[in-house]
Amino acid sequence: MAFAGTGKIWMNGSLVNWADAKIHIASHVIHYGSAVFEGERCYDTPKGSACFRLDAHTKRLYNSAKIYRMPIPLDQAAFNAAILDTIRANGFKACYIRPLVYRGYGEPGVSPLGSPVDVAILCWEWGAYLGPEALEKGVDVRVSSWRRAAPDTFPTQAKSSANYASSQLIKLEAVADGYAEGIALDVNGHVSEGSAQNLFLVRDGVLYTPPLYASVLPGITRDSVITIARDLGYEVREDIIQRETLYVADELFFVGTAAEVTPIRSVDRSVVGAGKCGPITRTIQRHFFEIVNGEIPDRHGWLTYLNPKGSGAEKTESEKPVGSRR
Ligand SMILES: Cc1ncc(COP(=O)(O)O)c(C=O)c1O
Predict the structure, then answer these.
(1) Residue 262, phi then psi, degrees to nearest 5
(2) To test the ligand 1 pocket, which listed residue (257, 260, 284, 302) has its Cβ within 8 A of the most ligand atoms?
């Protein structure tokens, strides 16, 4: 069933009704996938609604746009303000946010240069991406027969819409075979990531995650989880993971803005650990939710409050002095 949508969408500086937020069928993005985007969340905390790692998401968006030579017609501070305005206009306490920068209606042909760079910001209420039960009990996944793009094909540092053709193939295959998700290998056969999640593995008390050169998106949740795990005293290694290590891992979990911290209980019908959320995964998951929900101090300045006045909100990442983050 089609998504009913919500109130307002920010389009090139104006707030328009969901039903009126339309683009022309001849727009470049429709034909050639010429868009970069973000996915971020705003959480309902005791001090009011707060976006999680707003600055980091906006920075990644601008980096993605730079890689694709798409000049965004406003600066990062104005972009952040537009995101906060859009959430306020919709009256959400908690929501998912989708900023999108795309090549609009201009000249036909593959070259995007004759098509304008347009900007939209959508938000909607979105619960657990893989379902609430997945957060609790974990998901069953397969290793995908589709590889992630080689480094000299589609840049994975850019969160480009075009990369999601690969994600769709991974997801479609997994669902067709009765799995919640797929884990893709990179061009060298090493573990890369899920269709829209980064991956962590636990073995003998140490956390491992594939390095950025294993064709993974530099996930903001991945970065947050590395920081949280180290804060909690765990060792974390960004290292190549061989496929067979998935089968002998003590624990496995996905991380991402949509998936948050989701345990994996089996891979290719082979049970991971005890076949349920492992103790280290649960500790990190709890800590992650305590931070995003504002239940413990925001020691890294990751929350940007919608209404900073009187929230007692700490500084955002960009306002913190250099070196204050791990
Ligand atoms: C391919 C891919 N990898 C990883 C992630 C996780 O990234 P983040 O934590 O920044 O949402 C996403 C989520 O958007 C994704 O689409």
Answers:
(1) -115, 120
(2) 257
Give the separation between CA 65 and CA 45, rounded to whole angstroms: 31
Place of tokens 């609009």: 104
- 3: tokens are 């998504």
- Name the nearest CA neighbour of 46 among 223, 319, 226, 296: 296
166, 168, 215, 217: residue to mutate for ligand 1 pocket, most atoms within 8 A of CB: 217
Bridge partners (DSSP) of residue 51 are 42, 304
Other CB atoms closer than 10 Å to residue 110's CB: what's the count?
8
Q: Which residues contact 105 (CB under 8 A, 6 or more apart)?
A: 23, 24, 26, 27, 28, 115, 116
Determine the distance from the C-alpha atom of residue 320 to the mean position of all C-alpha atoms in its chain, rounded to a whole number.
23
User: Is 309 an active-site residue?
Assistant: no
Out of 47, 59, 66, 159, the active site residue is 159
> Model-level pTM?
0.94
β-bridge partners, 37:
100
Residue 79: name the closest of 96, 56, 95 by CA.
56
Distance between CA atoms of 251 and 266, rounded to whole angstroms?
10
Q: Which has the closest alpha carbon to 265: 281, 274, 185, 170?
A: 274
Q: What pLDDT sits at residue 1?
A: 62
Which stretches of the chain score pLDDT less than 70? 1, 309-326
Per-residue confidence (pLDDT) for residue 296, from 0 to 100: 97
pLDDT value, residue 126: 86
Cβ-in-10-Å burial (0-12, 13-18, 19+) of 171 comes to: buried
CA nearest to 96, candidates 59, 52, 132: 52
